[in-house]
RNA sequence: GGACCGGUAGUUCAAUCGGUUAGAGCGCCAGCCUGUCACGCUGGAAGUUGCGAGUUCGAGUCUCGUCCGGUCCGCCA
């Protein structure tokens, strides 16, 4: 069909007879002759139609953009001034001798530009057109290269790729499941996996001591710019190893990606930081180390401030923390500070105290309570000096972390404080084992219920609030790109953790009996992790939008404007599945 | 579940304080053009202003509702 792609002809091919096929990117009809840019995913080549062949020239002039054609012709080196330095094929053009229209294109619903000019819903509805644009196609090329690098690396390290079921049992912990009704078992449902967690642990019991899988996972939760209902994990598990072994493998994967994709050597091992330290210094469990501003601890100064909010924080065991933005006092007008307060309330806080230290002195709304002396001493202790903007927040530890952690990033982004020259990776370790679930009034697993608690603490009977886990997250540029843990492999310990989670023996047997049973027959100590592959591609592809790195993504409301899913089904199908719909049925899909 | 932003020719946008026939670029159609590469020039067609109510002499513009897209909070072990 074709002898070359549209991206490979060079000056050295001068004189060759070639067959090219592709899409008409653009036609430039000069009257006496005409130029045509022929495009495929490999590149673009200029085709010339000359007056010697009037019939061909006329046919070329009639072509529509995005029609698919095949041409036969002769490669010709372009005259010096006519070369196009912007194109890899720019030294040559193909003089057409034959033209075949393979598929005529109608006028497109939007024009294919370099920039994202068309609205996102149109581009999603005609995703196959959006993907013709090289700027979009490049994300899928990148994704492919990264997937290959991961497979090659893990294969070389002795990992076995095993596929696990997509239809599985619904489990109580964690995200909302996508459910699939069973035809054969009336009233019963499969769940789509939120991750292959239990299967990979069972593979360890089965003796496959090094497993991996690049696998789709599903969570029926609301979407975000970095969250889709179906997404891909690089899932890894190994036996007879601990945190260090898993982290070493994950680091090897990252090093391979840096090498293959960016041509850079990643310096290993990556730094480690405890969860507590990350929260104290950055206010989040996934610190962006590219921002050179840290939270300052001023807890001991809260009592004695004479400002009721701070005093209250001190009295109730809360904290007083600060962010110091060097030299930004002058840039923060009343309006910008108000915007920051709005943002704080949006995050669920009551507000923060913004202090500007200018040439005229210290400007803050709480002077009248604290007095000049307390304020200046506090600012100095926080490391501030004249010209700085200081944000103070007091109260519950988690809330203060959330407010200052987010403000740190927001101000850094708005004022160009993010040092983007190089990526910053680190491991965050020693996470809390449990988090208190206010709604359900019980302790919930911070990672998942198979995570091994810190053994010393566990044996000493430390309270759930204090207990740390053997979980770890890999963080890159402020994003969690992988998370994992050393798993529980002892039946007794697993039973105790279930108890701490308020899961009864019966419930544990009902939901996880197969795993507990498996542990009775010889279980190797094991540990693992899973990468969020989509987010990884986002970072390497330098996009903020997860839809960019997925071939056919869903909208914010988990629908696909392209194929109209989800949509209603025939009554007959419902009957087969023993289902009836409560309330009115939709007449058509959401798109 | 909540907050905010957006929706006007095929498309991207404009339309002053609510006021005459809703404009422009790209695309499309017709014609011209021998070195373009976002070719150029001339002319033309193209609109349920997302949808539904309301206010008004008069609504693209104001109000309410609703649908769709996006960002964020909650949620996401």
Structural category: alpha+beta
Strand order of the largest sheet: 6-9-10-22-21-20-17-11
Rg calc:
30 Å
* β-strand number: 22
- C-alpha geometry: globular
Q: Please estimate the helix content.
A: 25-40%
Q: Which parts are unreliable, with pLDDT below 50 for 5 consecutive residues or more?
A: 586-591
> How much of the residues is beta strand, in percent?
15-25%
What's the helix count?
16
Q: Note the gap between the termini.
A: 38 Å
Mean pLDDT: 92
What about the largest sheet?
Answer: 8 strands, mixed
Description:
A hairpin with a 2-residue loop joins strand 14 (353-358) and strand 15. With 591 residues, this protein is α+β, with helices and mostly antiparallel strands. Helix 4 packs across helix 6 and helix 13 (491-500) runs antiparallel to helix 14 (505-518). It has helices at 54-61, 120-125, 127-130, 134-156, 197-205, 243-262, 275-282, 308-315, 334-346, 367-381, 397-414, 455-459, 491-500, 505-518, 533-541, 571-576; strands at 17-29, 34-40, 43-49, 68-77, 92-103, 160-161, 179-181, 189-191, 210-218, 230-239, 272-274, 295-297, 319-325, 353-358, 361-363, 389-395, 425-429, 434-437, 442-445, 471-476, 479-486, 526-532. It has 16 helices and 22 strands. The chain is globular. Strands 6-9-10-22-21-20-17-11 form an 8-stranded mixed beta sheet, sandwiched between helices. It binds one RNA strand of 77 nucleotides through strand 1, strand 2 and helix 2.
